[in-house]
# Entry
Amino acid sequence: MPTDPPIECRRRFGRRDFLKRSAAAMVAFSTRPAPQPPAIDPSRVGAVLADFRRFGGGDDRGTTRLAYSDEDLAGRRYATEVMRRAGLDVSTDLAGNLIGRRPGTDASAHPIIIGSHMDTVPGGGSYDGQVGSAAALEVALTLADHDIALGHPLELIIFQNEEGGKTGSRALVGRVHPFELDIVTASGFTIRDGIARLGGDPARLEEARREPGSMAGFLELHIEQGALLEAAGIQIGVVEGIVGIRRWNVTVRGAQNHAGTTPMPQRRDALVAAADFVRAANEVATTVPGRQVATVGRIEAIPGAPNVVPGEVRATLEIRDLEMEKIARVFADIEARARAIEADREVTVAFDRFYESLAAPTDPRFRDLIEAAAADLGYSHTRMPSGAGHDAQSMAELGPVGMIFVPSRAGISHSPDEYTAPGDVARGANVLLRAVLALDRAARWQPVDRPA
Ligand SMILES: [Zn+2]
# Structure
């Protein structure tokens, strides 16, 4: 590696000689390759992802690795081995989350946390959660390969039971209600028994809770589960946040009557009014500027007989957006359309809100950092919301979070046909690695204030 000549040396040359030599040194400097930041090993992350399929992989491309099942336990034992290969100190917390830790050089620094989940839905794919878990393991392996010391401690978490309601990550923020422990999951085990099977302690679940401000940040890589990136031919999604959700039961009441003897003008058909409502909700969500979505996903006519004019319809309405106020505004518009339908069809339309999940915006600084990482690597990128829930949503209560999306072929997820190309997995893992390194270099950011 060329170095500047020492000062004493320079004095022995005339000014012209010195300039000539300096110019030569500069040429030498500029042609020397810049030190390359470390990169992940694409074949290794691909091999880990393929190995996951040993635990619940089917004859199709799919995987069924239900939370708390034998396959889940075996998959986590495998992840434990990989964590140990990366030199991580592995443990299971009281909530049953699998955690690998790596010390930082600054004892006072809060940890940077990365990770995702490995459990799947029944008949699920081999990428949801698993790409993020394999990539997080690959980041730890790469840090170990290059013997990179981070200032912050690093924690790699494989969250338990994401698909069954984000139990593991919600336990970290104290949001698992006692009644949930009795829920029988798809594996056949209750959440209580499942936590015990994973090595946690359901009786001491509250002790798994962490304090807001106790982490430097959380980064999760995940497959998009939508088709936006693929359709646009873009390699990396910089997630702006996880959308909030509100759901209502909608009851339309008209008059039940004989389908043969009630003339058309005299009908107060609740199902015809409900049809107007379904169309109205769709029109509002389509025409209001923005990326909100509204869905009537369930509908039931009462009494539900071929020869009876329906007197009542029970339906649901769901609206999602990154901003809760936007959801409220879209709902107000849909409600106004419902009032017009009431007058038009001589029915009543009642709304009863039964579910709310708050939007979890990612930290703006994390978006910048992920975007810069993608740009440095020469990957195309775009900002986008996440329409699906993720563990990052829970982690946002502890501090700043960021999410990276990679393309899902045809937007298919929760299906054996779920697929993300190896190149996309590798690109995502490289962005995750760069983002971890950048976050480590950044000042110790204060956690953002979160809405209660
Ligand atoms: Zn997932």
